C-alpha cells in the first residue's frame, strides 16, 4: 500500500463554521450601521480568504474603498479571532474518519484560507495531534487557489504530488488542487452543492464520511 497524504480544507469540510463566520461579520456590520447579511449570503461569500469575504459583505458603494476595506478587515479579523468557536463544531463523524485514516497510515494536513491563528487553535482543540501540518492565511504566503500553502504542507509532511490528495467543499479547493497538480475530492456536506461544484470542474465527490474514507483508501491502493 502506497503512503498517502490527505490535505484538508477546514471550513465546510472538517468543521461547520458558518454561524460563527456570519455572527462575527454581522457584528462588525452592525457596528458601522451597515445592513446585516443572511446565512446563505455568508455561505456564498466564504472561500477566498478574509479580505474577499469583507469585500463581498460590505455595501456595494464601499467595495472600491480600500480604507473602508482595510478597517473592516482588521476589525473583523480581531473580532473573529475571539469569537471563532462559539457555535463551530466538527461535522458528524469527522473525528472518527480522521482516526480511521490515521490507523491506515494516512498522514493529514489542513490548508485553509481562514486566519492562520484561528486555523491552528481550532485544529488543536478539535483534532489534537492528528494533524501533522496546519496552515492558514497569513501575509507571508499566497492563499488558495494559489498552490503555495499546499506546497508548504507537502514539504512539512514529506509528501509529493504523486501521493497527495486535496479534500474540500468549494470551487476554490478544486482550483487549488488543479494549481498544485494533485487530485481533489469534493465533499457535499459543506458550503457548495454538487451542481455548482461540477460546473466548477469537480470530478470526484463524497456525500458522507464513509464514502470519503473509501475514496481516500482507494487512492492509497493505486
TrEMBL record:
Coiled-coil parts of chain: none
PROSITE patterns: COF_1
GO MF annotations in UniProt: phosphoglycolate phosphatase activity
Protein name per Swiss-Prot or TrEMBL: Putative phosphoglycolate phosphatase, bacterial
Matching NCBIfam families: HAD-SF-IA-v1
InterPro entries linked: HAD-like_hydrolase_sf, HAD-like_sf, HAD-SF_hydro_IA, HAD_2, HAD_sf, PGP-like_dom2
Pfam families: HAD_2
GO biological process: DNA repair
One Gene Ontology CC term in the entry: cytosol
SUPFAM superfamilies: HAD-like
Top-level taxonomic group: Bacteria
Source organism per UniProt: Catonella morbi ATCC 51271
Amino acid at each position: 500500500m502506497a503512503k498517502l497524504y490527505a490535505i484538508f480544507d477546514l471550513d465546510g469540510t472538517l468543521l461547520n463554521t458558518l454561524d460563527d463566520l456570519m455572527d462575527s461579520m454581522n457584528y462588525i456590520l452592525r457596528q458601522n450601521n451597515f445592513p446585516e447579511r443572511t446565512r446563505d449570503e455568508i455561505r456564498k461569500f466564504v472561500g477566498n480568504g478574509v479580505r474577499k469575504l469583507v469585500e463581498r459583505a460590505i455595501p456595494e458603494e464601499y467595495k472600491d474603498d480600500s480604507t473602508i476595506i482595510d478597517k473592516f478587515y482588521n476589525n473583523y479579523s480581531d473580532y473573529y479571532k475571539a469569537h471563532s468557536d462559539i457555535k463551530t463544531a466538527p461535522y458528524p463523524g469527522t473525528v472518527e474518519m480522521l482516526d480511521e485514516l490515521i490507523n491506515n497510515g494516512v498522514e493529514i494536513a489542513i490548508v485553509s484560507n481562514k486566519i492562520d491563528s484561528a486555523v491552528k487553535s481550532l485544529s488543536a482543540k478539535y483534532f489534537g495531534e492528528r494533524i501533522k501540518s496546519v496552515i492558514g492565511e497569513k501575509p507571508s504566503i499566497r492563499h488558495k487557489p494559489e498552490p503555495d500553502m499546499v506546497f508548504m504542507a507537502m514539504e512539512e509532511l514529506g509528501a509529493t504530488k504523486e501521493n497527495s490528495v486535496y479534500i474540500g467543499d468549494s470551487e476554490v479547493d478544486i482550483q487549488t488542487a488543479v494549481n498544485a497538480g494533485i487530485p481533489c475530492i469534493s465533499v457535499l456536506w459543506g458550503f457548495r452543492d454538487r451542481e455548482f461544484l461540477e460546473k466548477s470542474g469537480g470530478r470526484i465527490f463524497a456525500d458522507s464520511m464513509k464514502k470519503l474514507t473509501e475514496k481516500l483508501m482507494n487512492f492509497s491502493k493505486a
